[in-house]
C-alpha cells in the first residue's frame, strides 16, 4: 500500500518509522511519502493560512498550496499502485473512524491524507479534489485536536496492522475488539500471561484448564460483561443470530 501525507509538520509523522508501521515500511509492505505543504507556497513567508471570509476567529488554510500539492501527488499516479488515491481528510466534523472503515481502507492500494491545522482547509480544495478522486472526511473521535497529524497516525496504524504480512500472526486481529466475525460488536475481555500467580493474584483457573471449549465460553462471557459495562450501546448491535442461551443468561 502507498500512503502520501501532505502536512505543514512532516516531522510529526516520525513515529511512522517506529515499531509495527516502521517494520511494515522496511519490509516494503507500506510505502510512505511525506510532503511539506509549504513547498507549494511562493511568498517569502511560505504562508499557508489566511483570515476567514465571513469573519470569525482563527485562520483557514489557503486553497492555492493545497491545490498544487494535490496536483503534484496525483501526478505520481503513473508510478503508483493505482491511477488515483483515495483521499482522507481528518476533521472532527467527518464520519467516525471505525474498525469497519479501517478494514475498508486496508483494501485500498493508495491513500492520500490531508491533515489540516487552524480552522481547517478552504472547502473548495475538497470539492475540487472530489472531482478527481474519492474523498472521505473522517473524525477519530468527539473531541478537537490542534491538527490532523495525530489523526493520521491513528488511522495509518489501524490500517497497517490489517495488511497481510504486517502482524507476525495473521490471526492476531481476529478476536480484537470491533473485529468482524463471531465476536462482532463485543469488546475484548481481560488477558493474562505467565506467571500463573503474581503478587498473590492467580490467573482465572479456566485459562490454564486446557479445555478450549470452556475457555472460548469464558472469553465470550467476559467480552459480554465488559461490553455491557463500557459500551452498552454496542450490545444492541450484536447480530441476534449470534446470541445463544448462555449469552442471554448473563
Ligand atoms: N474548527 C474545526 C471544527 O470545529 O471542526 C476544528 C479545527 S482543528 C483545531 C484543526 C484540525 O485538526 C482539523 O482541521 C483536523 O485536521 C484536525 N482534527 C481535530 N480534531 C480532529 C478529530 N477529532 N478527528 C480528526 N481530525 C481532527
Brief sketch in words of this structure:
This protein is an alpha/beta fold.
How is the biggest beta sheet arranged? 5 strands, parallel
By oligomeric state, this entry counts as single chain
Q: Flag low-confidence runs.
A: none
Got a strand count?
9
SS field, number of helical segments: 8
Rounded to an integer in angstroms, the radius of gyration calculated over CA atoms is 22 Å
The coarse overall form would be elongated
What is the H level of CATH, i.e. the homologous superfamily of the largest domain?
SPOUT methyltransferase, trefoil knot domain
Ligands bound here? Answer: S-adenosylmethionine
The average pLDDT score comes to 94
In spatial order, strands of the major sheet run: 2-1-6-5-7
CATH architecture identity of the largest domain: 3-Layer(aba) Sandwich
What does this structure look like?
The protein is 30% helix and 16% strand. It has 250 residues and is of the alpha/beta class. It has a 5-stranded parallel beta sheet with strand order 2-1-6-5-7. Strands 3-4 form a two-stranded antiparallel ribbon. A two-stranded antiparallel sheet has the order 8-9. α2 runs parallel beside α4. The mean pLDDT is 94. It binds S-adenosylmethionine. S-adenosylmethionine binds next to β5. The site of S-adenosylmethionine has 19 residues, from β5.
Amino acid at each position: 500500500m502507498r500512503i502520501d501525507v501532505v502536512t505543514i509538520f512532516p516531522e510529526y509523522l516520525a513515529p511512522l518509522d517506529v515499531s509495527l508501521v516502521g517494520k511494515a515500511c522496511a519490509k516494503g509492505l507500506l510505502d510512505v511519502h511525506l510532503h511539506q505543504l509549504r513547498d507549494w507556497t511562493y511568498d517569502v513567508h511560505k504562508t499557508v493560512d489566511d483570515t476567514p471570509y465571513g469573519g470569525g476567529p482563527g485562520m483557514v488554510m489557503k486553497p492555492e498550496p493545497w491545490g498544487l500539492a494535490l496536483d503534484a501527488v496525483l501526478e505520481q499516479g503513473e508510478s503508483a499502485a493505482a491511477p488515483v488515491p483515495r483521499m482522507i481528510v481528518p476533521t472532527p466534523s467527518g464520519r467516525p473512524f471505525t474498525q469497519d472503515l479501517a478494514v475498508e481502507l486496508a483494501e485500498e492500494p493508495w491513500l492520500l491524507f490531508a491533515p489540516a491545522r487552524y480552522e481547517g482547509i478552504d472547502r473548495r480544495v475538497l470539492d475540487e479534489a472530489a472531482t478527481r478522486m474519492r474523498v472521505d472526511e473522517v473524525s477519530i473521535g468527539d473531541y478537537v485536536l490542534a491538527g490532523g497529524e495525530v489523526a493520521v497516525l491513528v488511522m495509518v496504524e489501524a490500517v497497517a496492522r490489517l495488511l497481510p504480512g504486517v502482524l507476525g500472526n495473521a490471526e492476531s486481529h481476529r478476536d480484537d475488539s470491533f473485529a468482524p466475525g463471531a465476536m462482532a460488536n463485543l469488546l475484548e475481555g481481560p488477558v493474562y500471561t505467565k506467571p500463573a500467580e503474581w503478587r498473590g493474584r492467580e490467573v482465572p483457573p479456566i485459562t490454564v484448564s486446557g479445555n478450549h471449549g470452556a475457555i472460548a465460553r469464558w472469553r465470550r462471557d467476559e467480552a459480554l460483561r465488559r461490553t455491557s459495562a463500557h459500551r452498552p450501546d454496542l450490545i444492541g448491535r450484536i447480530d441476534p443470530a449470534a446470541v445463544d442461551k448462555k449469552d442471554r443468561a448473563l
